[in-house]
Fold these 2 entries.
Entry 1:
Amino acid sequence: MQRRIYADNAATSFPKPPEVLAAMIDYAERLGASAGRGAYREAVQTGELVSTCRARIAKLIHAEEPRRIVFTLNCTESLNLAIRGLLARGDHVVSTRFEHNSILRPLHVLAGAGVETTYVAVEPQTGRVLASEIRRAIRPSTRLIAIQHGSNVTGVLQPLEEIATIARECKIALLVDAAQTLGHVPIDVQKMGIDLLAFPGHKGLLGPLGTGGLYVRSGLESQIQPLVAGGTGSISDLPTQPDFMPDKYESGSHNAIGIAGLSAGVAWLLEHGIEALRAHELVLMRRFLEGIKRIDGLTLFGPTTAEGRVSVFSIRVEGFEPAELAGVLDSEFGILTRSGIYCAPWAHETLGTQAGGGATRLSFGAFNTEADIDATIEALAAVSAPSSVHTSR
Ligand SMILES: Cc1ncc(COP(=O)(O)O)c(C=O)c1O
């Protein structure tokens, strides 16, 4: 059977460490209860499992304490909670023209409710934003800066620390979309001055789909309304929503089986160390960037060096539509990629790729090897050779 090379880690990571599935099976076979919803041993242990996961994530991102972490279903829900929970009529937001729709769309919903946004332009080749542009966009009514840490289109890392300094000086909350960076690059929310960190559990944290979270800096919860209210298993004698973390934002039964897997994924990261994983990905990125340089007719959109980026690469190959290239890589070479606009319409508009149907994206992760990179480069070289264009079409 043809070997399959998974190069779509920006969508969700695959494979997961074996410990992730083992933890989910263990939960399903041994516990099966809802956290905080009973006094029997299995329910208590499920509650402990959820607390352990919270503590592990807090350790990974250097949060003040575990209760600063709120569990959600994905990064989109986390971003919605931060954006829609914080902002009200008359508030102004600074964001960029390179964001994912999970920031752009909540901001567009709020535009109809009197919240104004300035979308700062970015460097057209990479998507990198200048911190000085963020500063220029700030008004007296600016309440939030909402920006991604790493791009899901070009892989560019934004100058977060400079942006955080501006946010702190101007007393504006900083919301960071870490969908493409948590688990890939070290993040210390306290040192980096991040007030709100939205992240998926199913990408770099190696958990299953249906997991995510939001870090909320101490005290900020008094300014953020929950999007969902309901049973939390705490202060059940009151009909009013708890005002304390994390219960204020965690109504309804948890995705306990997902959190069991996520906890094992985060434990795996803590054991292996983010620095070591970043070093591995830097090796893969350098190899890929070096290899594709030699391929005629291939265009890379984004930074051409490994430093200052994550391993998310958007490319086009002359003679191929983005979806057609993804199809050929899949059917002829067993390489799994994503094509199109991947939920970032303005990023593609900035790069000039929107009209042509976007690009083809290859994204590598913790379990990709140098052999995967070499096979991918070989496949790209083969499809871009002039004779193959005709045979593959
Ligand atoms: C930059 C960015 N933000 C947000 C998201 C949304 O993440 P989720 O699928 O967990 O909702 C993604 C997913 O691809 C992303 O790449």
Entry 2:
Amino acid sequence: MFDVEKIRNDFPMIRNNPDLIYFDSAATSFKPQPVIDEVIRFYETRTCNIHRGDYDISFAVSKEYDDTRETVRRFLNAQRKEEIVFSNGATSSLNIVAINFAKKFLKKGDVILTSLIEHASDILPWFVAAKEVGCEIRYTPLDEKGMIDLIGYEECFKDNRVKVVALPYVSNVLGYIYPLKELTRIAHKYNAIISVDGAQGVPHLKVDVKDLDVDFLSFSSHKMLGPGGVGILYGKYELLDQLDPVFYGGGSNARFYNDGSIILKETPEKFEAGTPCIEGVLGLNRAVEYLEKVGMDNVASYGKELTEYFISKLEKLDNVEIYNSASEAGIVTFNLKGIFSQDASGYFNKQGIAVRSGNHCAKLLFNIIGVTETIRASFYIYNTKEEIDRFVDVIKDTTIEKCVDSIL
Ligand SMILES: Cc1ncc(COP(=O)(O)O)c(C=O)c1O
């Protein structure tokens, strides 16, 4: 049974900030006590490096680090744990795929198919890769709401030049869940691979990479209750294994020689040069366990419930314009009519409500929604309808004069 009050008790940030309403979990989530305890346990009782020390705590921590790979494999229903690479964020994971896939598999004239919804971390690496190799960037058609038009999407493949698709599972501004299974099926029909930005999807939805059949999936620990500094790259083993690392150094090589030749370790270790964020990976293990205990079906349905509840309340207000009324995954994007988004969020801040305003790193999305700056409220498992009610009361009463007064 999903019990939000019980969940809230697990989050010290909520206890320690009784006057704060935090609606910015799409930027980063709060951490539950077991995750915090795990990180502290590492610092207080077992600080050491992994895969290098010939002593007990290093053996123990190395094993726990490797066990996290198995936990993440189970969470994603991946075929094998060697398909899980730890990086330092979704951005790193997306770069590993884009830069190396392009170098290895793309040639001049090939097409990279993406969209105008993209977060900078998903699209910029492909811009750079496209420039280096001489590829074309193509944008899949979207409808007026920002949903992918599947017929238009398939049309994009008809000249047989699309070699890779880069799309998000969930838009970080619109909160729409894109039909990954179908998008992947179509990409594969035309022999293209798909790299998915899962930064907003994985924290909110039950993911089964075998069922979705995606080739690469990138996401961050810090948006799914885990510590910062850790990213995850899932890749189908045969593909992942063919990529070269972005970084070279200690821990990722088996041998190197005077003549400059390097023998790398096997996948996934070959991608993890240098000392990783060990405490972050250990904390991620606890975060995944926590989410599994809550149940990803509950996480998804509660996120949808809060999202729909907030939208239904906003729709009754005359002073609000909503840009994603079909959102499902904990993200609502809107503006107060006649008020600059940052002025409104500054005023909300004074009322104890934390939201984000601006372009949310999706700087091409204005082509679809017609505005560059919006307010984004994003929810997670510890938010409540009472918090939303409080926010709606504040929104109702927000005027430009109050916003200006709060700045002065
Ligand atoms: C959709 C999307 N992709 C990628 C990222 C980048 O994640 P990170 O900053 O954790 O690397 C974000 C972060 O906000 C995001 O929302």
